[in-house]
Write a structure and sequence with these properties.
By secondary structure, the chain is mainly α. The protein is built from 5 helices and 2 strands; from the N terminus they run αααααββ. Strands 1-2 form a two-stranded antiparallel sheet.
């Protein structure tokens, strides 16, 4: 939400393609970001190369749908998908190290912090 406001880009249906900070809130495609997160997580978790390619490919579908529906420009979708990719890659790079890691987790209807230790 903050990045969307900071980048300030409009939607194709609004007729504006300029990036003016704080002028609009559509600079990052949230659908591309949140739609890609679970699929990119699966891609990082699997050890099968063909399945990894399938998950990475499928992670682009929400963003491509936003472009085809004229809800976002390609740059906005790429920005959202890239944030999802960098986020999942960062988490899995940290998890792969053999040091304790604190991660956010859901506990019932609330949230908490989990201690992840790899042996």
């Amino acid at each position: 939400l903050v990045l969307g406001m900071l980048t300030g880009a409009g939607r194709p249906t609004e007729g504006t393609s300029s990036w003016q900070p704080f002028e609009d809130n559509n600079g990052v495609s949230g659908h591309a970001l949140y739609g890609a997160l679970p699929l990119l997580t699966l891609a990082h978790m699997t050890h099968r190369p063909w399945l990894r390619v399938a998950y990475f490919t499928a992670s682009t579908i929400p963003g491509l749908a936003r472009i085809s529906e004229d809800k976002h420009y390609g740059s906005q979708v790429l920005f959202g998908w890239s944030l999802a990719y960098l986020s999942t890659r960062t988490v899995f790079n940290q998890v792969s190290k053999k040091k304790p890691l604190l991660l956010p987790t859901q506990i019932g209807r609330g949230v908490g912090i989990a201690l992840h230790v790899k042996f």
